[in-house]
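Per-residue structure
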Amino acid sequence: MLRTLVILVWLSSFISIFATPYKGLFVVVTAVATVALFFFPIKYANRETVCETAQKDLSFLGSPLPYLIVAFLAIIGFLLCGH
């Protein structure tokens, strides 16, 4: 799921390099997504471990939500302060 999200971010930011006037922003986002795709491997576990993990509550730092919030705020800040 996370890898699919990173791929979608990469693809949309790559297309945005050519389609928007904010080329520098999307070059940086594409570079970060490329690093995330190739240098953070996905760990696979056996079926029992996945079932046990699925029963536990997701911690706030373990979820992608805080990172998405930080990325969103950084993009908004860049757009507001950049011009």
The chain has one domain: 2-45+58-82.
